[in-house]
Amino acid sequence: MLERLSALILMGCLVWAAVGFAAGNTNLLPGAEPFPDSLQTQLTQALQAKGAEYVPRTHHLYPDGRPQYTNRLIREPSPYLLQHAHNPLNWYPWGDEAFARAKKENKPILLSIGYSTCHWCHVMERESFEDVEIATYLNQHYIAVKVDREQRPDIDGVYMAAVQMMTGRGGWPMTVWLTPDRKPFYGGTYFPPRDGVRGAKTGFLTLLTRLSQVYSQDPERITQVSTQLTQGRANISCSISDTTGAGCHRGGRCHSAQESGGIVQKKL
Questions:
Q1: Is the dihedral of CA 214, 216, 218, 221 positive or negative?
Q2: Is 51 exposed, middle or buried (CB count within 10 Å of its CB: 0-12, 13-18, 19+)?
Q3: What are 26-41's pLDDT values in tens digits?
Q4: What is the C-alpha separation between 76 and 230, in angstroms, rounded?
Q5: How far is CA 173 from each of CA 7, 20, 176, 201, 254, rounded to the nearest angstrom?
């Protein structure tokens, strides 16, 4: 009886997997809630509309070449955002939807800005945004927003000026931690994925973890830092850097060096 029940359960799982595979359900992102049916339909249609010649830019592929993951960026016209449409990361384009969800769930924003021909943008994608462990942590603890600097130079200009003010220089990819009201409390450029990679004392995953802990455990500190940085008080940038262990760096281009620090914000 038990063997028969186990066989039925196994058969059910196989049927469910087969149906999902046949239907092109590529939206079960690790660590993220399933997409609503309406959104899932939109993403599936957007992917199908790319046509037979479309080649997903990811190493997460089924044997027939279809992508395992598809996120909201598949609907975007930007070539750069489309490059990230099949990361296992629950990317949002810049917009009110992302910030409203961050506010509702009381999560920080991870803002990543780059452009399609930036070498180190692609390196960080390959090392971090395509990494399932890092994507899972981001999906669980952050709202991730991707911006194409060539299509949104206004956003790029604001945050680049801020990063340059706090680190002494800037570059792409630009990586910025924001509160749900779009105020930054930490930022930099390229970050290696893990401690020790490329000589980094603190890797991206460790930094994500420590900043998430600070955000949830000491919200008054985040508010104080983001408020002071908004007012241009650059000298307090290391109050967050000391917590993360990443240090404060003084330094636009496409960067290979890790740079980080607190930053300021203009209203967007």
A1: positive
A2: exposed
A3: 469 999 999 999 999 9
A4: 30
A5: 49, 35, 10, 19, 7
Token pair recorded at residue 211: 């900043």
Report the candidate in 213, 220, 198, 199 with the shortest Cα–Cα distance to residue 244.
213
Structure-block tokens of residue 2: 């038990």
- Which pLDDT score, from 0 to 100, does residue 252 have? 41
Q: DSSP label at 180? A: T
3-class secondary structure, 162: helix
Strands (E), 123-252: 143-148, 171-172, 174-178, 184-188
Q: Residue 212 and residue 199: Cα distance in Å, rounded?
A: 23
pLDDT digits (tens, 9 = 90+) for 223-255: 988 887 777 654 434 444 444 555 443 334 454
